[in-house]
Amino acid sequence: MPERRTILVADDSSANRDLLSGQLSTLGFWTEAATNGQEAVAAARRLQPDLILMDIEMPVMNGHEACKRLKADPATAEIPVLMMTGFDPRPERSKMVEAGGDDLIVKPIPMRDLQVRVRALLRLKELRRDLRSTQESLRQLVQRENPTESKAPFDDRVALTAQALARLIGLDAEDQEVAFHAGLLHDIGQIGLPEELLNRQGSLTAEEFARIQQHTILGAELAGPFRPASVLAPAIRHHHERWDGNGYPDKLQGPAIPMMARIVSVADAFHAMITDRPYRPRFTVARALEILAQGSGSQWDPRLVAAFATSSLPQRIAGAVAEDQAKIA
């Protein structure tokens, strides 16, 4: 018989706690309770629940602050947090995202909605575990194949941008997680290429460019043996496809390009443009956005470019990149 999963319910209203606990018990879960954010943080560290239902408005410590602390602690960062509010959810959603929450639901919660959201977030936890395992296995592979490599092909900035872009266009928490890992691992296939070729300052021969193009195919093959391959491999293989069908390796066009690949393509391109390269200095944010706009509908998905360009993401990303480069300097 499978082990019953534990859900922590944090709400300052005893009536709400009792109602939610009863509903979750009917669905087959164990429940524990907390009356404020501070108690929720302590209980989560002690119990390691499978999921947390976190009310936003609570005394002592509100739900947003509690969620921030949980996500900042490696011991609790992977626990999905379903935020709850009894008010207009629109202004709360952006705060939930900033706090690191995984989803938001409005009280009172119908039984069917509760079941759907809880099941989805529990699947998210399993996916996170599989993706983290895949990430670690691929890191070990890179280290084994290239023990002296100066820079492993993992890109945290592209990963975070891809995740934020997925969130911006309204994808669910599970897709946001996939976008993060797709962004992180999109260039894993570069371990099969010599570093001098990747860092070449001059123009490439046709043969050299064809060799570089193979990194997308190799990357997808490397991700293939792992359990989340069905969601990661397509993004890795197709992140250099173009909206007009003139990309590589398979010349996919428009909506035929997997969504995760389209997201990673925009995130990767923007970072490439605002970062110093061996063959050119970095572009300004304004120039990078201008290039994205010029390629909208030909190189990149126009919906993604529009969403990205009209948000605060580009400036925030550029600020973070500048801070990183200042630390290195």
How would you describe what is shown here?
- The chain has 329 residues and is α/β, with parallel strands linked by helices.
- The protein folds into two domains: 6-109, Rossmann fold; 130-328, Hypothetical protein af1432 (Orthogonal Bundle).
- 57% of the residues lie in helices and 7% in strands.
- The protein is built from 14 helices and five strands.
- It has helices at 14-26, 37-47, 63-72, 89-99, 111-145, 156-168, 173-185, 195-198, 206-223, 229-238, 259-273, 285-295, 302-309, 313-328, and strands at residues 6-10, 30-34, 51-55, 81-85, 103-106.
- Strands 2-1-3-4-5 form a five-stranded parallel sheet, sandwiched between helices.
- Helix 1 links the parallel strand 1 (6-10) and strand 2.
- It starts with 5 loop residues before the first strand and ends with a helix.
- 39% of the residues are buried.
- Residues 147-152 have low confidence and may be disordered.
Task: Summarize the topology.
Blueprint: E1 6-10, H1 14-26, E2 30-34, H2 37-47, E3 51-55, H3 63-72, E4 81-85, H4 89-99, E5 103-106, H5 111-145, H6 156-168, H7 173-185, H8 195-198, H9 206-223, H10 229-238, H11 259-273, H12 285-295, H13 302-309, H14 313-328
Quick structural overview:
The protein has about 325 residues and is of the alpha/beta class. The protein has 14 helices and five strands.
